[in-house]
From TrEMBL:
PANTHER family given in the database record: AGA OPERON TRANSCRIPTIONAL REPRESSOR-RELATED, HTH-TYPE TRANSCRIPTIONAL REGULATOR SRLR-RELATED
Keywords assigned by UniProt, alphabetized: DNA-binding, Transcription, Transcription regulation
InterPro entries associated with the record: Carb_Metab_HTH_regulators, DeoR-like_C, DeoR_HTH, NagB/RpiA_transferase-like, Tscrpt_reg_HTH_DeoR_CS, WH-like_DNA-bd_sf, WH_DNA-bd_sf
Protein name stated in the entry: DeoR family transcriptional regulator
GO molecular function, one term: DNA-binding transcription factor activity
Organism: Brachybacterium vulturis
This protein's record includes keyword Phosphoprotein: no
Length: 256
């Protein structure tokens, strides 16, 4: 099989399942694992997939089926009372004139109606945020371009990461899938994790928005330790039960 044919077969496998392994591709395509690794490395360099240990994932999304099969429009309006209260507390941290980064997720999206009358610059890779704030007269929106992840209305990939590296923001507000008992903040979407890490890197202050159900929540990919954030905005104090940060680490907890 020619390399171009293998690349097409790998792309088709990713579209079907969202993730592939070196071993399975080697067996299916009847080539050595070393050849598959080289193919995956080339495709990753081209931005066609995201390389992970033992294989690759679709750069447009994750292997988390139940959440990602629904569009963001299906879930954006379903913020709970706790999530809306957390969003309001987050907005209280924002000052007019600031540059603010908004992540994807329902809790962060719940901030948008509360920010619509403010005077701000908003940096985001979330098209849901863009649509919510597009008509706000006092808000300038900086959209991080990249590859569209349609199911969740977000931009991901190397172009998004590169664009993010060129900005600096006063405050970044992030969501997550869960927080482990040791304080590790988690997500389940390989293509979103570099964006979240990038938001932490470019922000003077960063906030994790997470209600009590995110402790432990879900997720298998570590974004950062909880202590990496300026503050946790949640609905329970001092920390949700079961969280024990490593010795010497701390995080401010902000409540609605």
């Amino acid at each position: 099989m020619l390399s171009e044919e293998r690349h097409q077969a790998i792309a088709a496998a990713l579209r079907r399942s969202g993730a592939v392994t070196v071993a399975v591709l080697s067996a299916q395509l009847e080539v050595s694992e070393a050849t598959i690794r080289r193919d995956l490395d080339l495709l990753a360099t081209a931005g066609a997939l995201r390389r992970v240990r033992g294989g690759a994932t679709d750069v447009r999304g994750s292997v988390r089926p139940e959440a990602d099969l629904r569009s963001f429009a299906d879930v954006a309006g379903t913020a709970t009372v706790a999530e809306r209260a957390i969003a309001a507390r987050a907005c209280a941290e924002v000052r007019d004139g600031e540059v603010v980064a908004l992540d994807i997720g329902t809790t962060v999206a719940a901030m948008c109606p509360l920010l619509a009358e403010r005077s701000l610059t908003v940096v985001t890779a979330s098209l849901a945020v863009v649509r919510s704030l597009a008509a706000a007269p006092g808000i300038d929106i900086v959209i991080l371009g990249g590859l569209l992840r349609p199911n969740y209305d977000s931009m991901v990939g190397t172009l998004t990461e590169s664009a993010l590296g060129q900005v600096r923001v006063d405050r970044a507000f992030l969501g997550a899938a869960g927080v482990r008992p040791d304080g590790a903040v988690l997500d389940s979407t390989p293509s979103e994790v570099p964006i979240k890490r990038g938001l932490l890197d470019v922000a003077a202050a960063s906030y994790l928005l997470a209600d009590h159900e995110k402790f432990p929540g879900s997720g298998f990919l570590e974004i950062a330790p909880l202590s990496r954030f300026t503050a946790l905005i949640t609905d329970r104090s001092p920390l949700p039960s079961g969280i024990a940060l490593p010795e010497g680490e701390d995080v401010e907890v902000l409540l609605p």
